[in-house]
């Protein structure tokens, strides 16, 4: 059985027919071709499938697509500007080499975007607490923390300029 839904994905309206048992992760990857949304655990504890729903980090492996009708969703692909310019958080992750295998990176970046929207001046402890639901199997946590601190400086600088 399928259901018609409409999603706003990275600013683009998508009308889709989804199975009743289809997760939002499957819809975004398989139907929308957004490969930054990744499945690892399938039970919402690793953060690899993190997307932003109305600006809030959400584990897409836990949400049935049929329940997401009308949602505004951002994936990593949606952060890049129309001219290809990277988001300040993406820039900071590159500058600080805050990745190794990069499997966790999309979820880490999106969670960081949400954190900085809520708290533009986080402490290192607040960063670690906010990112606690995003696991890095390579152990790049110190570089990730440094990247988030750098991203906060960049976001603050762009807000002032």
TrEMBL record:
The keyword tRNA-binding does not apply. It comes from Thermomicrobium roseum (strain ATCC 27502 / DSM 5159 / P-2). Residues 3-79 form the 2Fe-2S ferredoxin-type domain. This is Aldehyde dehydrogenase subunit III. Keywords: 2Fe-2S, Iron, Iron-sulfur, Metal-binding, Oxidoreductase, Plasmid. The lineage of its organism: Bacteria, Pseudomonadati, Thermomicrobiota, Thermomicrobia, Thermomicrobiales. PANTHER family: OXIDOREDUCTASE WITH IRON-SULFUR SUBUNIT, OXIDOREDUCTASE, IRON-SULPHUR BINDING SUBUNIT-RELATED-RELATED. One of its GO terms (molecular function) is oxidoreductase activity, acting on the aldehyde or oxo group of donors.
